[in-house]
Amino acid sequence: xxxxTAARSESTMLQKPAGKxxxxxxxxxxxxxxSIPSMHRRAGARACSTLKPKExxxxxxxxxxxxxxxMTIWAIRIVFIENDLNTNRIYASTDESWRLMTIMLPYFIFxxxxxxxxxxxxxxxxxxxxxxxxxxxxxxxxxxxxxxxHFYGLKIFILEMSTPFSCICFxxxxxxxxxxxxxxxxxxxxxxxxxxxxxLELMIWYDIYNDWSYFKEHSPFLQMANVLIGLIALxxxxxxxxxxxxxxQFFHPVDWDLQKNTEKQLLRKKEDSKEN
Length: 276
Prior knowledge:
The protein is mainly alpha-helical. The chain has twelve helices and no strands. It has one domain. Helix 3 (53-69) runs antiparallel to helix 8 (163-174), helix 5 crosses helix 7 and helix 6 runs antiparallel to helix 11. This is TLC domain-containing protein.
């Protein structure tokens, strides 16, 4: 009897306590909620895997540019809120402006190098982006080397505030979400941001006009020429061109590269039909 009692006591000690049962009505929504993020991740992974190599690389570059665009908030705080650079728009600098400058300089080296590789690999040539990146790199190089014009450099950098919305636009297009409300809202914001870029460019021109004598006397010639050439290109070519393209894209939501390829195919078909 004592042996049987000891065996039963040992078996009860080895048994695991029964877990608390959950109602199916409670566990089902919880399981569904946990599965939603994984479903989105799988959907995103499938969408990225279906992209062509050219689109996949451009996707990654667009995401990097989009992340950089959020740093314009930092530049806005330095230029418009702290306002220390406004005391002397040629020679004034702060620790914050130096930190941002030293981030921008290597970034545009990376950006131009990546774009050169992209164009070489996929046999393309983005003249607008090349001009934009080269002028930006030269400008930030002079800002760091000559210790001048941090005010103008950061104020021009604020124009990059459009890049996060451009990134979202491209990604949603590739996810085939161009007919969704999210894409339309983002595209409208992007168009208005480009209009604000025009306003900001005019503000920079006005600052240079007010400081012209001091600006011309104390700025190194090459740096001054780079700023003026860059502003002319932005004001009269790049920003109006990109504003037009993004506005047209709102009404006809297609990728520019895809649109170019489609137009080439249509031209080839017309030529073939004429020959036949």
